[in-house]
Design brief:
Chains A, B: It comes from Paenibacillus solanacearum. Chains A, B: This is Redox-sensing transcriptional repressor Rex. Chains A, B: It is found in: Cytoplasm. Chains A, B: One of its GO terms (biological process) is negative regulation of DNA-templated transcription. Two copies of one chain form a homodimer. Chain A has 208 residues and is of the alpha/beta class. Chain A is built from eight helices and nine strands. The longest helix of chain A has 19 residues, at 9-27. The interface between A and B is large, with 61 and 62 residues.
Amino acid sequence: MTKTMKISEAVVRRLPVYLRFLNELHKKNVQTVSSQDLGHKLDLNPAQIRKDLAYFGEFGKKGIGYDVDYLIEKIRQILKIDKVIPVALVGAGNLGRALCNYNAYLKDNMKIVAVFDAQPNKIGESINNLKVKPMQELCPTIRELSVRIGIITVPAAEAQSVANQFVESGVEAILNFAPIIIKVPNEIRVHHADFTTELQSLAYYLDE
Amino acid sequence: MTKTMKISEAVVRRLPVYLRFLNELHKKNVQTVSSQDLGHKLDLNPAQIRKDLAYFGEFGKKGIGYDVDYLIEKIRQILKIDKVIPVALVGAGNLGRALCNYNAYLKDNMKIVAVFDAQPNKIGESINNLKVKPMQELCPTIRELSVRIGIITVPAAEAQSVANQFVESGVEAILNFAPIIIKVPNEIRVHHADFTTELQSLAYYLDE
């Protein structure tokens, strides 16, 4: 069902937001939720939410709403986080450490399982139970742990080289935090998570 | 011209990406650039780029391309970063430090001018020439420095309280890195920059 449809990136980016709130509801033993409740909580138009979720089939029941657990399961399937996705990170600076500390939030089978850095003084440091490894171990470790996603938190000048090593090691997708556009083969998906971009696009919405 | 149009968030988010590359061209004394060159470098469809830039008027000349400096000036105007936009940050942990270190990249008049933290042991610490201040100084400092954008890098449990203090102090927009949805009055723009969301939406693009 989802395979033949092209879902817009905007929708794909909203699904984890829905998922987080649904997980909160699940914890509180809430069994159903309406698109109105979702919309109110997430500051989104309920019609937009219904449209987003309808992409994946008819989950909601009129007058009752959505079954929370079923919706969680469906979104996890759609996002492919219903199975384990090992993640590796290169760059054990402030940002890299901050992201490793997020591991606690990554309940949905996505976990940073290996951290690497090029600087000798960082090697062996412990971040959230992960020992920082040298770059020479990147490729064998990624293959051994079946890492599928790579995160880049190195300075701009080193980002392309790290991306190349990720690609050679068989990583399928990259989340790049370095403030530079990295080039990879077409079959590799790259998201640029760039602080400057976030901040500059926010400025657009300021009043004169 | 730009005032009456509603520009989609997707376009607003691409403009800083164009701007970064144009700034690189400017540094290399390149005077014109085609949508093909932009598209190749940024991994975007040239037609998409032409459409994005056409929103703001006709800047490109057929067969010649876009005037780099003029386009830089225009995008800066559209994003409102042609004037100074002071930014404040709350949460001097790993992520907060990483963002302060980005200050060097924020050439376009957006600068973090104040950093706050609730923990006494962080107060007075120096991050990239900024001294961490206590929360009691948030409101007076924001008013004194005319801060317009607030960044939240505190744990989820404290994010809403920080958002409230930003709003009370007169901040117009918030970039929230805490993994929680914060609620603010309608006139305040909030962007959620959430690592989990980035990672989960990336998983969608993995093969089965």
